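FAQ: What does a ligand-bound record look like?

Like this one, built around manganese (II) ion:
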Amino acid sequence: MARLYEYQGKDIFKKSGITIPEGQVVKTPEDARNAAERIGKPVVVKAQVWAGGRGKSGAVRFADTPDEAEKVAGEILGMEVKGLEVKQVLVEEKLDIAQEFYAGVIINSAREVRAPVVMFSTEGGVDIESVPEDKIAMLTVDVLRGIQPYDTLNMALSVGFSGKALRQLGDVIYKLYNVFKNYDCRTVEINPLVLTKDGKVYAADCRMAIDDAGVFRHPELGIRIGREFLKEPTEFDLMAWTFEEEDFRGTSYVAQMASESELKQGGYIGYHGIGGGAAILGVDALNKVGLKAADYADTSGNPTASKVYRVAKIILSMPNIEGYFLAGFLMANQEQWHHAHGLVKVLREEIPKRPGFPVVLLLSGNKEKESQEILQEGLKGLPGRIEIYDREHVYDAKFIGGRVRALVDEYRKERGL
Ligand code: GDP
Ligand code: MN
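The answer part, i.e. the structure of the complex:
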């Protein structure tokens, strides 16, 4: 799921006829002051990060004057919300709230359903998981039929809303579904959807994520990687994404975990797992012996040798790593000789540049015997500390982790560290 920031989602709302508060996204306290001045009313200053619950973390603050807006923006910019650094804030007119609602569209991927579900609740502004189910109207959409404006009116009625704003609410929910559809969303949520004291309905918040497979249809959104990322992608991440973007044979999932300054502190291993869940075992194995994964990588789904090669190559490009670890902690049903070929090529290129470098390879599954032969034969005589393991140790994370540790210790000693 490729996430959008609140302000980006709100731009889409505006274009789609959903009313949003007047506002502007800024990067400095001075610009926050200017924005507040331009708005000319009390404002709310909101951290733009890919995390919910900003209200509770002090990352949504109010300001009555431009002076105050500058001050609170200064406090929010640079703070961390759930581990994410705030680099931008949204300055918006403060709404005079009479009532808060929740509106959202998600996908119910259960086998019997596999359809979008539109949700509306009069209990907005709180975590929707904490709202009792009978207070949430839910409509499973037949995607071929779509929905009609009366469907969403009925949703608001069905949870007991009967005020003057009924039509406005129905209209927003209806438009929200169309945003979901037109932008290939995975989820879109307005929480809170606000009814103001003067009787108008505004989307006061927006949480929106685009389906990875639909990202290419929306170049205007500027999403650089069609995949869920916790942080803005780094150069490393962007380069790794090119392996995937143009070649969907198998998957390569690669993300940078440690920054360059962290890598300098030592104790990081270039990490390469096979198969999502099993790859976690390898990270665990490293952590248990006091080492850390410099990156997270997973090549699975029968990737080509060239994909494996590229992934291993970028892993080995990280500065200051103290080893390379291929964690094939499963009996993969993919043909492992592609991994073997890719690895032979990359290690033959890289190991001569770094004599003594620790390399632990665990590879098992289909074509295991052939893969082992390719590795043994292909890596023979290279000047690294290379150990190759097969199914005998496939569930033995403790042993494998111990081997990485032992080789790293030898390598350190050799270099006088
Ligand atoms: P979240 O905590 O990350 O979901 O951030 P929200 O955008 O939902 O803001 C948190 C809370 O701040 C909301 O539930 C509202 O109660 C409050 N809030 C946000 N914008 C306004 C506003 O314009 N006026 C008022 N009075 N409250 C607001
Ligand atoms: Mn919210």
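Follow-up question: can I read anything off the structure? Yes, for example: The CA atoms of residues 364 and 390 lie 5 Å apart.
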